[in-house]
Amino acid sequence: MVTSLAVQLYTYPLSHYCIKVQKILEYKGIPYRSIEVKYNDRTPLLKASGQDYIPYLVDDGQGFTWPHIVDHLERKAPTPTLYPDGNKGKAAVLEHWAHAVVEEAVWRYVVTDAEKYLARRDEAEAWVFGEMQSRARGPWHLLEHRKPEFYEGMKEVLALVEKGLDGKPYYGGNAPSLADFALYGAISPLYTVGGQIPAEFQTLRAWWGRLDGKKSA
């Protein structure tokens, strides 16, 4: 287990990329300090990194933007590996699918709930979030009206995620892989706002439960 205390992670609770990295850090046993970046104020991140994308990881004074974090952590702590079946290419494809398809299906369903989640923390942050998301996705009342449609779309995608496990405990086989942590991150906004994987997906729920508490031995 790595014992360095030099790792800092600039993160955000609704970011699927950030949740993926947090779970990888926990799984690899790398202690880190979490620095939360607000949706409406990324000044600390800009000062630290000169850019405004999260997650941003600092390790012993060296900064890593999100495209390079996973490779750095795999080099830093090779065991447990993120590629237990040795197929790095397959894991990368599934990682991309998780971020591009699975997260989007989940996000469409939870986006209006995400504003309510933020409002309980900071009304100004929630207002900026709602304004930016409605500009990108359409009027808020229409998004609320379409929630049943978005829910069904999310379930269609989650059915594929569950099917992809193919009877195995993880996408990596008997141990989690990068694909598992990316998919965990993609689904995480559903849990952040107070929801959970629908009851009909018992296999997927069991997979989530195994990952939820997964840390290195």
Note the main attributes of this structure.
Glutaredoxin; 2 domains; 4-stranded mixed sheet; 217 residues; single chain; Glutathione S-transferase Yfyf (Class Pi), Chain A, domain 2; alpha+beta
Strand content: 5-15%
Number of separate domains = 2
Could you tell me the mean pLDDT? 94
* CATH architecture designation of the largest domain: Up-down Bundle
Rounded radius of gyration (Å) = 17 Å
CATH third-tier fold name of the largest domain: Glutathione S-transferase Yfyf (Class Pi), Chain A, domain 2
Topology:
Blueprint: E1 7-11, H1 16-28, E2 33-36, H2 43-49, E3 56-59, E4 62-65, H3 66-76, H4 88-119, H5 123-137, H6 140-145, H7 147-165, H8 178-192, H9 202-212
Parallel strand pairs: 1-2
Antiparallel strand pairs: 1-3, 3-4
Q: If you had to describe this structure to a student in words, what would you say it looks like?
A:
The structure is a single chain. The chain is α+β, with helices and mostly antiparallel strands and 217 residues long. It folds into two domains: 7-76, Glutaredoxin; 88-212, Glutathione S-transferase Yfyf (Class Pi), Chain A, domain 2 (Up-down Bundle). The chain is built from nine helices and four strands; from the N terminus they run E-H-E-H-E-E-H-H-H-H-H-H-H. It has helices at residues 16-28, 43-49, 66-76, 88-119, 123-137, 140-145, 147-165, 178-192, 202-212; strands at residues 7-11, 33-36, 56-59, 62-65. It has a four-stranded mixed β-sheet, with helices on one face. Helix 4 runs antiparallel to helix 7. The chain is flat and about 45 Å long.
